[in-house]
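Record type: ASSEMBLY
Status: queued
Input:
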Amino acid sequence: MSTRQFGEPVQRNADPALLKGEGAFIDDISLPGALHAAFVRSAHARARIRSIDTSQAEVLPDVVAVYTADDIGALDAELPMLIPHPCITSGGKTQRPLARGDVFYAGQCIAMVVAVDRYAAEDACAAIAVEYEPLPVELDLDRAVADGAPLVHDDIPNNVAAHFVQQSGDPDAAFAAAEHTTTVRVRLERSTAAPMECRAVAARWDGVSGELTVWDSTQATISVRGGLASLFDIDEDRIRVIAPNVGGGFGQKIMMFHPDEILVPYAAMELDRPVKYIEDRVENFIGASQERAQIHEISLAARKDGTVLALRDSFVHDTGAFIPYGIAVAQVASTSIAGPYRIPDIWVEMTLVYTPCVQVTPYRGCGRPQACFAIERALDQLADELGIDRTEIRRRNFIGPGEFPYVRDGLLFADGLAVNYDSGEYEKALDLITETVDLASFRTEQEAARAAGRYLGFGLGFYVEGTGLGPYEGGHVKVHPITGKVYVTTGLTSQGQGHETVFAQIAADQVGCDVKDVIFAEGDTQAHEWGVATFASRAAVVSGNAIHKAAVKARARIIAAAANMLETDEDSIELRDGRAWIVDGNRSVSLAEIATASNPLRYAFNEASQTATQFAPASTHDGPPLAEGQAPGIEETDYFSPSHATWAYGVHAAIVEFFPDTCAMEIRRYLCIHDCGNMINPMIVEGQVMGGIGQGIGGAFYERCAFDENGTPLAANFMDFLMPYATEVPDAEILHMETPSPLNPLGIKGVGEAGTIPVSQVVASAMEDALAPLGIAPVRESPMSPDMIHRLLSEARSR
Amino acid sequence: MKPALFDYVAPETVEAAVAALAGDETARPLAGGQSLIPTMNFRLSTPGRLVDLQRIAALRGIAVEGGTIRVGAMTRHRELETDAAANAANPLIGEVLDNVAHIAIRNRGTVGGSIAHADPAAELPCLLVATGGAVTVEGPGGSREIAAADLFRFHMTTSLDQAEILTEIRIPALAPATGYAFEEFARRKGDYALAGVCTLLTVEGGVCRAARIAACGIASRPVRLAAAEDALAGGTLDEAARNAAGEAAKEYVTAQADLQASEAYRKDLLAALVRRTAATAAKRAGG
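Status: finished
Output:
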């Protein structure tokens, strides 16, 4: 047998080209004669547009076209409501490609200029005069829902975009009978993914063939194709959508359509010239989807021994000015709220609030960091109130390894199905992290440090993550008859995660070839016809298993053909090193020969194909060359549609030092125990988790999309939006556990978002622990900052 | 993020550069471009003409002469940071430059560019004020000298005229029996600081004979913290004196609260940095 590739830290196939600068991102794709687009964007959060004067721009020499809402025909309509839900008020508001009448956030597109280059396009944007009548705004979530607050949309009372309550069990009875209850209120602020490559789109229209090609830095080529076909009312087969190399997405690029994604193809068709738009960093900060802002008020009902019997959580969620992605983020938060804990009785209420800010759609974590912060902060407080160690109280509430599947009836997850944890060993993970960190020794060190005037703290946070959502993905495996290379495709896109490597590992194991001999294609609607998109930590689970199933079928085809060619029975064939061998023998045929022989030929172009023509001796058999029901070549397709989400989990911990004089924080040690089921490639898992931790550190201590009281973004560049550098992100110690998922053939769970989820809780908990001798109030907000530490310390001193 | 249209000239002499600036009120000199180019890309700055100084050989180079470190305005940060003679004459220079942005930026950014840009949070202006340095400028009316104390006026504003070019920076060597320290606090390594403090203490017989302390990031320009200096000068630099200096420094904070620091935090931070740098400088002075 070949060495099994699944589970090995195989080097990433994509890296050599990317490291040598040979990647092709959209801005690298040369489209001769291309025009360039730029946008006039709203300077106000909420305003009525009195007039738009484009006359000065239109006469500039390098300007080809200027579009306002009046100039885009049938596209001048509200964009699709992607994920409708009955709880959404009046069906939900989505934005128009170009503002008509009103603007709803600073950064909203008002006009598009198409010019010979981006410089000229920006000059023209500066020459367009927009007269506004600014309207009052309210950005505070609590005040925005109060009677009399300024409305984002005139016909949506109290700015309530959606209201939804879910319940599992009988929380009222549990609260009534509880020995102890506790309540905390936590607030998380707005943030953004800030991918290294901003969004980008280019389009070329071929008027002769009637074919539209769109390059889109998207996570969802197939879905974008479907949307474009619908908006332009042309057949899907006439549209090809390509996501070439993409420099990060983190959910921001699952949102479709940002206005440019339809206006650029529209202009390409209208002008019969290729058009390109490369979003710049400021535009990404003001015009691309954001996330995170929520305020939770969470209560726990418990016994005095720390057993939590019931949970109530009522939270408000900032959805921005529009709600195109439905309630997805809030729904994930509401259904992740009980974490890894048994808590049988749950009541969750969510209120989604329109604010005059750019729309909120999923950003890596998608509601889970908020839910984790809420439940974990509450559990820390409960532990403190009951005099139970913060670690111990978690142990007393974990769902045990024998209790799976663990269903929370009444709580519907983002796939519309009841929350149903499939497997896990939560207590073992907690034991592993406390042993690794050597908590007992740390407490001794902490005591000594305190005596010396230094403030060390320990914090931990546990999380669960529903991953691998449906509806489905496909896998396609084909052996190339000339080279014997194995061609694998799926309908996803990659933003750098390593799909090309892990999917090659899965296919290579079945067909018995080297990982490097797998050619993988995705991110192109012509490479793979069917599928959905990359989101929700689902690529490995859904496409991985689809490719596995297709590869299993291809393996059977290869073995059958090889047995025929080697004149033996199928049980005597083994596949390795790109060949089929007779077990315990030295005769073999290559995958290329097998693929060639499996395709009856009219013409022979090489030695192998001579044996496959209809006059060759090997082909003499009864009946037609291709038997009834048989397909030519070695080629198989299959699909995987998960029954429901599979739940990964993990626990992070940190030892942190705080410096009361400067209010600085230094992370001295960061640990992560992570379980995503069977790992396809532990090196890639580690990269995903480490990247997530870095993003989590950003969310916990640095990054904030701040606005002034008028709704003007204050942090629309990397000087003010503090994405951490490598110098701010600690080396994490990442340990893996592997509890297989019973829900799919490979036993895997998703890992894409895991690292980000618990970091704010870890830092907050460690901060409280470190600064406890100084009597600080509980930490209830994220992100934290030196300024916040200063405030907590000042308040403590003045008490 | 594309700049508006501008002309570009790259003269090879200071005289030609001055002439190019004098002929066009909208002209601006271009040094290392690490601040000017981003502001142009944001269209916050729209000069009609850039006069690129990088071909002027006379503006490069470092010399240590008679107790003064003379630095050509177009010397890159990194060249000064790694210049052995300059750092031997005043090791505060390297300590300050280590905090300026990142190496990639220091490879391009120039000493003169940073000083002429006069960002109130920048480190080099603070160094110049703390050490009592000076600059030479050349304009249509010839050359003149400006002391550090008279150079920095306001945010991004110096006492240079539009057609004047900063040609040389002079930093005094470290005085005998003098300890030095620079420390700043930034949210991320290499960012502009929320506050930074440059401290020079001359100590004889355990007594502080002279104190020079300047801060960046706390006002509209780099400022001498005279009251903090007074709290240290003439005393023994013990903890009480350092604490008093820190407290005395707080009155110099005039920067408005921003996303990263309330006024109260910035004051306490400044006090902490004064205490810390005073302790380090005292130790280095042997006091």
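Annotation: The interface with chain B takes residues 118-119, 122-123, 126, 280-282, 661-664, 702, 704, 706, 714-715, 717, 719-720, 722, 724-725, 727-728, 785-787, 790-791, 794 of chain A (CB under 8 Å).
Annotation: The CA atoms of residues 3 and 509 of chain A lie 8 Å apart.
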